C-alpha cells in the first residue's frame, strides 16, 4: 500500500517536526522566564537570610555563593539550562526540597481538579448549548443563555466564596476546603469517596465558568452549522430532526469546541490558581502562589516550565487528534 | 397525461420587512410523470421558494397563506411534519445548487447515500451498502468501491453533484426537484450533469422540476417552461412556445438579454500593444516535508499574449485553468516565476513594489463579487476617492471626479454619500467599475465581473463596459468562464487549459471554427447551442 506508507511517513514527518519545534518553544520559554524573573524586585538571598534570622552581609554572601547567585547572569542561565536538560529543576530554598519533587507532589491534585472541571464544563456546556440552539428564541434558550451570561460575568473567586458560604457554612452539605478530611487517615474506597466529596465545590465553581463559555460557543456553532446547506440536504432526505442534530449538526459544530477545549486543556496545570487558593487545594496553583510570595524563584521557574511544556504537549496531541475529528485536515499540508 | 404534481393558487407571504408582499402569489402549474418542467426566472423571482414549499422546507417565519400543492392527489400543505419527513427523500428527491456545501464534510459519501435508505428503513445493512455501490456506478462515478469510503472534500464539484444526485435517486422518487443544479459547475461538467439528469428522468420515468436562470439550459433540457417574475408566473407553455414565440414582454426581455454567439465587429488592432506578456510562468507549491515532495500546480505554463488600446481580449477557461492567476499576475498582485509583462514596452516583472506603485494606476481591476469587493462600512464616495487621494490628488478634485464617474456609470448623484448595502448587485458592480476608472487607467482587468449578476443586469453592465471602452479607449482583459458572454463582448478570445493558452484568435473564429480539441469540447458543451435567441425575437416581428 504505497499510499498508506506515504501517509504514515507524512504523519511521522509531522510529529518529528512538531516535537522539534515544541522543544525549542519550551527552551525559549525557560530562557525568557529566567531573564524576566531577574527584573523582579527583591533578593532571594535576603529573603532566605531573613527567614534564618541572620541578615549580616557575610551570611548573605555565603548564601549567594551556595546557590550560585554570585555568578554572572549568563553563567547562571547556562547552569540552570543544563540542569533542566538533565531533569534537575533546581532546589527550593524555602522548602528545602528539589523543585521537581515539589511539583510532582502537587501535580496529581491539580490534574484531578482541572481535569474534572474540564469534563464537567464540556459535558454540561455542550448539552446546554445544543438545547439552547434547538429551542432557539424560546424560554429554555433565554433561561440557559441568561445563566451562561451570569456565570461568565461573575468573577471566579466570588462564585467560589459564595459557594463556600452557602453550601459549607450555611447548609453544611459540603466540605469548604482542602482535598481530604484532615487527620481522618482514610484508606481505599473511603478515601476515594472523601476526596470526591471535597472535589465537588472546587470543580463546580471552576467548571461553571467554563460551562458558560462552552454553552455560548456550542450554541453559536450549532446555529451556524444548522444554517448550512448540508443540513438542508439532510432534511430533504427525510432525516428526522433529532438525527440531524446528532449526526450532522453536532459533529460539525464540535470542531470549534474541540479547538477551545484543547486550549483550555493546555492550561490545566497552571490555570487554577484562584480556585486552589480559595479552596486551599494542595495543587500547583497554590505552590506557585506561595513561591511568588516568598520569592522562591527556582519553584516559580519550575512551575512555569512544567506549564509551558504541558501547553505545548497538549497542543501537539490536539493537532494529532484533529485529523480524527476532521478528515479534511492533512498533516504537513 | 397523469398529473404528478399540481400547484393551485399557491400564495406565500413574505415577512413584513420585505420589499414586496408575497414571495409567490397565485401560483398554478402542473407537472406530469415523465416530463421535465423548467422554472425560469431571475434572482428574487420566487422560483426556489416554490421548491422549498413543496418540500416543506420553508423558513419558519413563512407559511403559505392559501392554495394547495397536490402531489399524487394529496395536499402536501395539509400533511404533518412526520408525514412530510417520510415523504422527503422517498417520494420526492431534491438536488441543490452548491455541490461543495451540500454534503456533510465529516461523513463519508457512502454513509450519506446510505442514510436516505436508513432513515426510511429500506433494506438491511448489506443490501443498502450494495445499493450505494450500484447508485455510485449509475451516476457515472469512477471506482465506486473506494469512493464509498471517501470524504466529500476528496471529490470535485461535478463529482459531488453526482453524489447528491445519487442520494436523491436512492429510493427512486416519483418527483425530482433540481434547484439550479448546474449553476456552480464548469460548462463541460454542466453538460455531463444535464445529460445525467435527462438519462435518469427517462430511465425512471420521473417527473423533474428543474429550476434555472439560464435559458441555454432550458433550451437543452425542458419539455415545458414556466417563467416567473417577482413571485408571479408571467408565461408558461411548451419549450418551443416559450423560447421561440415568447408572448410576455418580460420573457422577451429576458431572452433578448441572453448572451449569444454573435461576435462584435472587431477591427484588427494595429501598432504597439499596450500590454504584452511573454512566456509567463507560475507554479503553485504546497506542502512537502522531510519525506514527501511538495504538491505542484502549474497555473501559468508560458503564456504569451498581446493587448492593444481600445481592444477587449477575452480569457476563457474552466476553474483551475489559470485564467484568474493570469489576471492577478498582470495586476502584479502576485509574483511570477519567469517571463515578462510589458506595459508600454517596460517590463513590470522585475519592478519592486515601490517602483511599481506609480504605475499601478494604469492597470485597474473590476472584481467578481459585487457584495464582497466593497467595504460595507465606507460610503461610496470614500470607496471611490481613497485610491486617488492615496495617489496625491486633492480631496476636492477626487470627489468631483467621483461624482462625474457615478453619473457616467448610470448611478444617481446622491450615491456618493450612501453605503454599499443600499445598492443592488448590478448597481454595486457599477460602483466597482467607477472605482476602477477613478485613476484613468489604460487597462482594465475584469475577472468574472458579470458572473454573479442576473442575465438582464449582466446585459446592462456589459453594455456599460462597452460604451466606456469606446469613450475612454480602454484596453480590457475580460476573464470569464462563460463563452457566450465572451463571444459577445470580446474582440479576441484566448482559451486557457491547465495553465496554457491553447488557442487564441478573433471571437468569431474561436466560436465558429475552433481548431484546438479543448476549445471544440468547450464550445460543444455550451447549453442551448442549437437554439438561437435572436431568431425567436425576430420571428415575432415577422409574424
In brief:
The complex is a heterodimer of chains A (333) and B (543). With 333 residues, chain A is mainly α.
Question: Which helices and strands appear, and what pairs or packs with what?
Answer:
The complex is a heterodimer of chains A (333) and B (543).
Chain A lengths: L1 H38 L4 H9 L4 H10 L6 H13 L5 E2 L4 E2 H36 L4 H15 L2 H15 L17 H39 L2 H8 L4 H26 L6 H6 L5 H10 L3 H29 L8
Antiparallel strand pairs in A: 1-2
Helix pairs in contact in A: 1-13, 2-3, 5-6, 5-8, 5-10, 5-13, 6-8, 7-8, 8-10, 9-10, 10-13, 12-13
Chain B lengths: L2 E11 L8 E11 L3 E5 L6 H9 L10 E6 L2 E2 L5 H7 L4 E4 L13 H11 L5 H14 L5 H5 L8 H13 L5 E5 L7 H18 L2 E6 L2 H7 L2 E6 L2 E7 H6 L4 H9 L17 E12 L8 E13 L4 E5 L6 H8 L7 E6 L2 E2 L5 H8 L2 E4 L13 H11 L4 H14 L16 H13 L5 E5 L7 H18 L2 E6 L2 H7 L2 E6 L2 E7 H6 L4 H9 L7 H10 L1
Parallel strand pairs in B: 3-8, 3-9, 6-7, 7-8, 13-18, 13-19, 16-17, 17-18
Antiparallel strand pairs in B: 1-2, 1-4, 4-5, 9-10, 11-12, 11-14, 14-15, 19-20
Task: Please tag this protein with its features.
heterodimer; A: 333 residues; mainly alpha; MetI-like fold; 2 domains; two-stranded antiparallel ribbon; 76% helix; B: 543 residues; alpha/beta; Rossmann fold; six-stranded mixed β-sheet; 20 strands; 37% helix; 24% strand; membrane (chain B); ABC_transporter-like_CS (chain B); ATP binding (chain B); P-loop_NTPase (chain B); ABC_Ni/Peptide_Import (chain B)
Description:
The complex is a heterodimer of chains A (333) and B (543). By secondary structure, chain A is mainly α. Chain A has 13 helices and 2 strands, in the order ααααββααααααααα. In chain A, strand 1 (91-92) and strand 2 (97-98) form a beta hairpin. In chain A, helix 7 packs across helix 8 (188-226) and helix 9 (229-236) runs antiparallel to helix 10 (241-266). Chain A starts with a helix and ends in an 8-residue tail after the last helix. The mean pLDDT of chain A is 84. The mean pLDDT of chain B is 87. In chain B, a hairpin with a 2-residue loop joins strand 19 (492-497) and strand 20. Chain B is built from 20 helices and 20 strands. Among the domains of chain B are: 1-91 and 176-258, P-loop containing nucleotide triphosphate hydrolases (Rossmann fold), CATH 3.40.50.300; 99-170, no CATH class. Chain B is 37% helix and 24% strand. The chains are: A mainly alpha (333), B alpha/beta (543). Chain A binds chain B through residues 6, 9-10, 12-14, 16-17, 228-230, 232-240, 243, 247-248, 251-252, 326-328, 330, 332-333, and chain B through 55, 57, 82, 85-90, 93-94, 96, 98, 101-107, 115-116, 119-120, 151, 153, 164, 167-168, 286-292.
Amino acid at each position: 500500500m504505497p499510499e498508506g506508507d506515504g501517509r504514515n511517513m507524512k504523519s511521522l514527518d509531522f510529529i518529528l517536526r512538531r516535537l522539534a519545534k515544541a522543544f525549542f518553544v519550551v527552551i525559549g520559554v525557560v530562557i525568557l522566564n529566567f531573564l524576566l524573573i531577574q527584573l523582579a524586585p527583591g533578593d532571594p538571598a535576603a529573603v532566605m537570610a531573613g527567614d534564618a534570622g541572620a541578615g549580616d552581609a557575610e551570611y548573605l554572601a555565603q548564601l549567594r555563593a551556595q546557590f550560585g547567585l554570585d555568578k554572572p547572569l549568563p553563567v547562571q542561565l547556562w547552569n540552570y539550562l543544563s540542569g533542566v536538560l538533565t531533569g534537575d529543576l533546581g532546589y527550593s530554598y524555602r522548602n528545602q526540597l528539589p523543585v521537581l519533587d515539589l511539583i510532582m507532589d502537587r501535580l496529581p491534585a491539580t490534574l484531578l481538579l482541572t481535569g474534572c472541571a474540564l469534563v464537567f464544563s464540556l459535558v454540561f456546556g455542550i448539552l446546554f448549548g445544543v438545547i439552547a440552539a434547538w429551542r432557539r428564541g424560546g424560554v429554555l434558550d433565554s433561561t440557559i443563555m441568561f445563566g451562561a451570561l451570569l456565570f461568565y460575568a461573575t468573577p471566579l473567586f466570588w462564585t467560589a466564596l459564595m459557594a463556600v458560604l452557602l453550601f459549607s457554612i450555611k447548609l453544611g452539605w459540603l466540605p469548604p476546603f482542602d482535598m481530604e478530611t484532615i487527620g481522618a487517615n482514610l484508606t481505599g474506597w473511603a478515601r476515594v469517596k472523601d476526596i470526591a466529596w471535597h472535589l465537588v465545590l472546587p470543580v463546580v465553581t471552576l467548571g461553571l465558568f467554563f460551562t458558560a463559555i462552552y454553552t455560548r460557543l456550542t450554541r453559536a456553532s450549532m446555529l451556524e452549522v444548522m444554517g448550512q446547506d448540508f443540513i438542508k440536504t439532510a432534511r430533504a432526505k427525510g432525516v428526522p430532526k433529532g438525527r440531524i442534530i446528532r449526526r450532522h449538526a453536532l459533529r460539525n459544530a464540535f470542531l470549534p469546541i474541540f479547538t477551545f477545549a484543547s486550549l483550555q486543556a493546555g492550561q490545566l496545570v497552571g490555570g487554577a490558581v484562584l480556585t486552589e487558593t480559595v479552596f486551599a487545594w494542595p495543587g500547583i496553583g497554590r505552590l506557585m502562589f506561595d513561591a511568588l510570595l516568598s520569592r522562591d524563584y527556582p519553584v516559580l521557574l519550575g512551575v512555569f516550565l512544567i506549564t509551558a511544556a504541558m501547553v505545548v504537549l497538549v497542543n501537539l496531541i490536539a493537532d494529532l487528534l484533529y485529523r480524527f475529528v476532521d478528515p479534511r485536515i492533512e498533516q504537513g499540508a | 397525461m397523469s398529473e404528478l404534481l399540481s400547484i393551485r393558487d399557491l400564495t406565500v407571504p413574505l415577512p413584513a420587512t420585505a420589499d414586496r408582499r408575497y414571495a409567490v402569489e397565485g401560483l398554478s402549474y402542473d407537472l406530469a410523470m415523465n416530463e421535465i418542467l423548467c422554472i425560469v426566472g431571475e434572482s428574487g423571482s420566487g422560483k426556489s421558494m416554490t421548491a422549498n414549499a413543496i418540500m416543506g422546507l420553508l423558513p419558519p417565519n413563512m407559511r403559505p397563506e392559501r392554495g394547495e400543492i397536490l402531489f399524487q392527489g394529496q395536499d402536501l400543505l395539509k400533511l404533518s411534519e412526520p408525514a412530510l419527513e417520510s415523504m422527503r427523500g422517498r417520494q420526492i428527491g431534491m438536488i441543490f445548487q452548491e455541490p461543495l456545501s451540500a454534503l456533510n464534510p465529516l461523513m463519508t459519501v457512502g454513509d450519506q447515500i446510505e442514510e436516505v435508505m436508513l432513515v426510511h428503513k429500506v433494506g438491511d445493512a448489506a443490501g443498502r451498502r450494495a445499493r450505494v455501490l450500484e447508485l455510485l456506478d449509475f451516476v457515472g462515478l469512477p471506482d465506486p468501491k473506494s469512493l464509498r469510503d471517501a470524504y466529500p472534500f476528496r471529490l470535485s464539484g461535478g463529482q459531488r453533484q453526482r453524489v447528491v444526485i445519487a442520494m436523491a435517486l436512492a429510493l427512486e422518487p416519483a418527483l425530482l426537484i433540481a434547484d439550479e443544479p448546474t449553476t456552480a459547475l464548469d460548462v463541460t461538467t454542466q453538460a455531463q450533469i444535464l445529460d445525467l439528469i435527462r438519462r435518469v428522468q427517462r430511465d425512471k420515468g420521473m417527473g423533474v422540476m428543474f429550476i434555472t436562470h439560464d435559458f441555454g439550459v432550458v433550451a437543452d433540457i425542458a419539455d415545458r417552461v414556466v417563467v416567473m417574475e417577482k413571485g408571479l408566473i408571467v408565461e408558461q407553455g411548451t419549450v418551443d412556445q416559450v423560447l421561440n414565440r415568447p408572448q410576455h414582454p418580460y420573457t422577451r426581455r429576458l431572452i433578448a438579454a441572453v448572451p449569444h454567439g454573435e461576435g462584435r465587429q472587431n477591427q484588427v488592432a494595429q501598432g504597439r500593444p499596450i500590454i504584452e506578456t511573454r512566456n509567463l510562468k507560475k507554479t503553485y507549491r504546497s506542502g512537502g516535508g522531510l519525506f514527501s515532495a511538495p504538491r505542484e500546480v502549474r497555473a501559468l505554463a508560458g503564456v504569451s499574449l498581446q493587448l492593444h488600446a481600445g481592444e477587449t481580449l477575452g480569457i476563457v477557461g474552466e476553474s483551475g485553468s489559470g485564467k484568474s492567476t493570469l489576471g492577478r499576475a498582470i495586476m502584479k498582485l502576485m509574483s511570477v516565476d519567469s517571463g515578462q509583462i510589458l506595459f508600454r514596452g517596460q517590463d513590470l516583472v522585475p519592478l519592486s513594489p515601490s517602483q511599481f506603485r506609480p504605475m499601478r494606476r494604469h492597470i485597474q481591476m473590476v472584481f467578481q463579487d459585487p457584495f464582497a469587493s466593497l467595504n460595507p462600512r465606507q460610503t461610496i464616495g470614500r470607496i471611490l476617492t481613497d485610491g486617488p487621494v492615496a495617489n496625491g490628488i486633492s480631496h476636492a478634485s477626487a470627489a468631483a471626479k467621483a461624482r462625474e464617474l457615478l453619473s457616467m456609470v448610470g448611478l444617481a448623484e446622491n450615491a456618493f454619500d450612501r453605503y454599499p448595502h443600499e445598492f443592488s448587485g448590478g448597481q454595486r458592480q457599477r460602483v466597482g467599475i467607477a472605482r476602477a476608472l477613478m485613476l484613468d487607467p489604460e487597462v482594465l482587468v475584469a475577472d468574472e465581473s458579470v458572473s454573479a449578476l442576473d442575465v438582464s443586469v449582466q446585459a446592462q453592465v456589459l453594455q456599460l463596459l462597452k460604451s466606456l471602452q469606446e469613450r475612454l479607449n480602454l484596453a480590457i482583459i475580460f476573464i470569464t468562464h462563460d463563452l457566450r458572454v465572451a463571444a459577445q463582448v470580446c474582440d479576441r478570445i484566448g482559451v486557457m487549459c491547465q495553465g496554457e493558452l491553447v488557442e487564441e484568435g478573433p471571437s468569431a473564429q474561436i466560436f465558429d471554427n475552433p481548431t484546438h480539441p479543448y476549445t471544440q469540447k468547450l464550445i460543444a458543451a455550451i447549453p442551448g447551442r442549437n437554439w438561437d435567441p435572436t431568431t425567436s425575437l425576430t420571428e415575432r416581428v415577422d409574424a
